Predict the structure of ABC transporter.
Amino acid sequence: MTELRLRGVSAGYGATPVVRGVSAEVSSGGWFAIVGPNGAGKSTLLKAIAGLVPCQGRVELNGKAPSRKEKARVLGYAPQNPVLPDGLTVTDYVLLGRTPHLGLLARESAADVSIVEETLERLDLTALAGRKLRTLSGGEQQRTVLARVLAQRTSLLLLDEPTTGLDVGHAQALLERLDLLRREDGTTVVSTLHDLTFAAQYADELLLLDGGEVAASGKPAEVLTPQRLRDHYAAETEVLHTADGHPVVAPVRRPT
Ligand SMILES: Nc1ncnc2c1ncn2[C@@H]1O[C@H](COP(=O)(O)OP(=O)(O)OP(=O)(O)O)[C@@H](O)[C@H]1O
């Protein structure tokens, strides 16, 4: 169980921060989606939480600033465009997710192998288990990267655009898997998501970033309004609703 709190977090790559003054609270077992237009700073904020870019302000896990070691134990991060080692098979790569759990020089146990097999199965990767990473399609590679982070079995997942490159069925299956993890194991999920309809259906809180600053935050139905989507994405949309009341963001063409 991991609760995440951000207090005035600013982060970036040089002298000028690209993310400024972000504060937020993510309860244990919550799903927090960071949304916003291209270049808003979503990935940078996720990297700041993971400790991968210099950051000011405070990132707290369960009420305190974690040590590097605690972070490695608790937090799993899947980047948007990871560099994949060429020669590895899908199984070898996903097994790397178990590394933080192994003792010094220890080899993976039968339990590690079974966690990897189960994860491959869940992400529809079993048939590709022996394939070299470089022979996979874009969507298959993306699922493999997510399998590795899920095999880590951490209590906080930071996922950068996890559904990019996935078809609608695989995207839905992945999001359902994450939702099950948080309901059954109390896993906390923080993800960036471009698909606002998926974000509205799975996340319980949204943070809308624009120009590195928080433009809005709250429940999906509060954040996703046509006016905000016009103001921050320069997009013309209608916000419809599914039968069970979830917002659906539909782009619309306006007569010119
Ligand atoms: N390694 C880097 N060095 C310098 N600037 C960077 C670096 N990575 C990102 N930036 C800049 O920081 C800003 C925020 O980038 P970031 O990737 O966080 O945005 P994003 O909201 O995730 O965008 P997208 O939706 O396009 O993925 C952008 O202006 C980008 O050009």
Remarks:
- The two ends are 52 Å apart (CA to CA).
- The mean pLDDT is 91.
- The chain has one domain: 4-251.
- The longest strand covers residues 4-11.
